[in-house]
Amino acid sequence: MLIRVIADLHIHGRYSRATSEQMSLCEIAKYAKIKGLNLVGTGDFTHPLWLKEIRETLVPQADTGLFKLASVDSPVCFVLQTEVCTIFDYKGQSKKIHHVILTPSIETADQINERLTPFGNLASDGRPILDCTAPQLVEEVMAVSTDNLIFPAHAWTPWFSIFGAFSGFNTVEDCYQDMTKHIHALETGLSSDPAMNWRLSGLDKYALISNSDCHSFWPWRIGREANVFDLPSLTYNHVTSAISDNDPERFKFTIETDPAYGKYHWTGHRNCKISLSPPEAIKFGNICPICRRKLVKGVEQRVEELADRPSDYRRNDAPGFKRLLPLSEVIAAVIGTDSPAIQAVWKPYNALIEKFGDEYSVLMDASFEEMISVVTAPFAQAIIKVRDGSAKVTPGYDGVYGQLTLDVADVSMIKTKPLSVPRVQQRSMSDFC
Hints:
This protein has helices spanning 25-35, 48-57, 106-116, 134-144, 172-176, 194-197, 236-244, 278-283, 299-306, 327-335, 343-356, 359-364, 368-371, 377-388, 423-427; strands at 3-8, 39-41, 58-61, 66-69, 77-90, 93-103, 129-130, 149-152, 185-187, 207-209, 226-231, 251-257, 267-269, 274-276, 320-324, 392-394, 403-405. It is an alpha/beta fold and 433 residues long. Strands 1, 2, 5, 6, 7, 8, 11, 12 and 15 form a nine-stranded mixed sheet that branches. The chain has a two-stranded antiparallel sheet with strand order 3-4. A two-stranded parallel ribbon has the order 9-10. A hairpin with a 4-residue loop joins strand 13 (267-269) and strand 14 (274-276). Helix 3 (106-116) runs antiparallel to helix 4, helix 10 (327-335) packs across helix 11 (343-356) and helix 10 (327-335) crosses helix 14 (377-388). The two termini are 38 Å apart.
């Protein structure tokens, strides 16, 4: 019998910049379970203080390469994971690339850290900056163990990504050179999805994986993107081989936010509140029509530049994907509030979780009839609209998240006045990502 594994393989601990101070391994496990994840990255094992907490808080699961909480009985497993930034020159241009690393043991994590220490101060940030090239990084990581998995993070973000408009490359091979043989996957990021990446034939050999890159444990952040596997058992090697082989029999699909929801989907300029589709941005020469400064080139436009296939191209030989949005964001949109952290959102959210067990079960499986037994119809209608793709998202741009717009019946039934929130929830309203 196969085991369904839902994995978020890229998160951050509290020693990374702009991350919640409450981001602990116990809180991560708690909210991963509510989300429906049964495998999650530890984040930031390169940071010495976070690795110390990993040692003290997690225990290895025999012969699996994975870990669980030592003090709490939780179904959630952890995989040792970190993200690092390499900054280097390539043909006279500065390249700034983020990479995610997975490793199966504390011993190999220690060895990776030892090999990376000469390139930068690992204690400076949960996501350290390394003075080495991308090929050097891969060489060092793979020299420790060929069981390690490394892949480019959020591949299309304008800054700090392999295909970024400002400091990236046009191909995987240009970035990793002779170490490309060790690259088996890339992370698509919030502003793109597999369909957009399928337009580049040069990416056919790589698995397209999706993770939250979350900086807080709240359910509108953790697991907002994830990977779904059917495996003989939950082990590090089964997960990484399913990715490396890009096997749709084992790597079933990814959970994606609508790419328009991402902060860099369209080209634009936040200060001037200008958001432009690729044809519109090209029409203006990628210059803001208000302030005349250079626009931040969006992911959709960057994909269009590199694509060698039409926009409707579809692959049938690769893992599929489902477009969803975090349940808290859907509820907030129905209520008409910008914050998913108010009691008016928590109340229907908790009712649905209590009924169906976890958020993914609500978003992917719960029927309209089942949902209206615990929440009013507008919430159920909105969830169905997101599930079937009929909900509309106004595209994000230049660091501004996209906005979900809904047309559901009987919205007047919903209480719109925000209720008071306990202090800890009020504090959580800050956007940590």
